[in-house]
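Anyone opening a protein record will find just a pair of labelled lines. A complete record is shown below as an example:
=====
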Amino acid sequence: MSNQAGMNLTLKVWRQKDGNSKGKIETYKLADISEHMSFLEMLDVLNEQLISEGKEPVAFDHDCREGICGSCSMHINGEPHGPDRGVTTCQLHMRKFKDGDTIYVEPFRAKAFPVIKDLVVDRSAFDRIIQAGGFVSVNTSGNSQDANAIPIPKAEADKAFDAATCIGCGACVASCKNASAMLFVSAKVSQFALLPQGQVEGKERVLNMVQQMDDEGFGNCTNTGACEVECPKGISLENIARMNREFLKAKIHKE
C-alpha cells in the first residue's frame, strides 16, 4: 500500500563550478517527495527550491528521460544509476528510498570523464572511440545491397542486437576500479563483428577502437564483473571476451 505522506530526504550533492574548480558536498533538505517521482523529477524539485531561494541550481545531464539516451548518468549512494538494477537514473523511482534517508549524489568518477559542472561530466571520449571505428562503411552510390539479401543466422543476429542495446552511459566505467571502458568498446565492436556487413572492416575496427580507448586514458579490465552488474542494459561480459579474440586475431594478421 502506498504511503500517503511524502518523504523527507537529506541530499548530499556534489557541487563543482567547473573542471578547474575544487568541488565539495553540499547538504539540502527536501520535504514531501512522492514515491512515484523519478530521481530526476526529485532533482527538479530541488532545483525549483534552490532557484526560489536565489541559489544556483544543480547541473545534471538529461535528455530523453526514458532510459534511451544514457545522458542522465550519476553516482547515487556509491552506485552508478543508483540502487535499482537494469535502469538508468531517469528510470529510478523514489520508492527505492525511505522517509528520512540521506542520499549522496555525485558525478561519475574517471580520469577520462572530467567534470564539467556539478553532476555533469564530459563523456566525449566515448564519441572519439566510436569515430575511430564504431561504424560500417557502405557504398551507397547506387550499388548498395538489399539488407534482406544477406542471410544472418538468428543466433548471431540476436547477439549483435544485444550488444547494440548499449547506450553509452558510462556506468561500466564508473563501476570499475580501473575506470575501464572495455564493456562499452566491446559492445560496439561485437555488434559489428557478429554481422557480415561489419566483418569487412573488422580487423581495422578493433585495433583502432582499442587504441583510441587507451589513448583516452581508460584503465584495463579488472575481470570483477562490476560493469555488467551496473549496466542498465545488461551488456554481457561475453562481449569483452569476443573483443579480446577479435583484437588478438587482428594483431596476428597485422604482424
Summary: The mean pLDDT is 94. The chain is about 35% helix and 15% strand. The chain has two domains: 7-116, 123-138+150-254. The two ends are 65 Å apart (CA to CA).
